[in-house]
Amino acid sequence: MEPTSSVSEHEGKDSGSASASSAYTPQELIPVVGEEVNAEEGMDVAMKLARQALAVGEVPVGCVFVYQSKIIAIGRNTVNETRNATRHAEINCIDDVLKWCKENNMESSSVFGATEVFVTVEPCIMCAGALHKLHLKQITYGCHNDRFGGCGTVLDTGLLADDPCKIVRGVRAEEAMQLLKDFYKGTNPNAPVPNVKKKTGRKTENESD
Ligand SMILES: [Zn+2]
Questions:
Q1: What count of Cα atoms within 13 Å lies in the side-chain half-sphere of residue 178?
Q2: Is residue 67 part of a domain?
Q3: From the candidates 2, 9, 58, 90, which is the catalytic residue?
Q4: What ranges does the record give for the region Disordered, renumbered to this chain (predicted)?
Q5: Are 192 and 22 in contact (CB under 8 A)?
Q6: Which residues share a beta bridge with 74?
Q7: What is the pLDDT of residues 8-41, one digit of tens each?
Q8: Structural domain containing residue 80
Q9: Beta strand ranges found along 20-173 (DSSP E)
Q10: What pTM was estimated for this model as a whole?
Q11: How many folded domains does the chain comprise?
């Protein structure tokens, strides 16, 4: 997903100093692929991943894919870390499900069709389109995504799909939104100093960062 703010995350992290290994040091225990979760726990895991994203300076969105009550993929935004604007939590999970299917000799289309997605923020148009295209069983999300939401807030990508996913909205929405607010305010005590450029309009050519 993309954030509900006017600040672009793509402006952050231009120092290139963030190490990939430190990005995966969890602040709290996060369940792994193979663990069983119920419907409530699914969003709980997604929220933990969102908090982890916040802690490492990524837009705080977490996502979990659950198939037959088992986690088959967990993900969060890695846009800054990878410097790839398409590396949203959901896309990272989709890639991991494809790998999981290969490793387990499963047909991905049947797995996706029986998989539920828990994501802390409404998937953006790109991600929602991909999830509908893959015919996921259900998408449960937290807060709305006012700028990029692809499940009805900006565009309902389900209207373009042959067999749209069932959507459940607003699960722990306030908590999910608070994480986004913390990210853009830079108030998270665990986060590295945000490296978001301020557009002051006063910088001259002689000034540098
Ligand atoms: Zn997205």
A1: 7
A2: yes
A3: 90
A4: 1-23, 187-209
A5: no
A6: 64
A7: 333 333 333 333 333 344 557 888 899 999 878 9
A8: 35-154
A9: 62-67, 70-76, 115-121, 138-143, 166-168
A10: 0.78
A11: 1
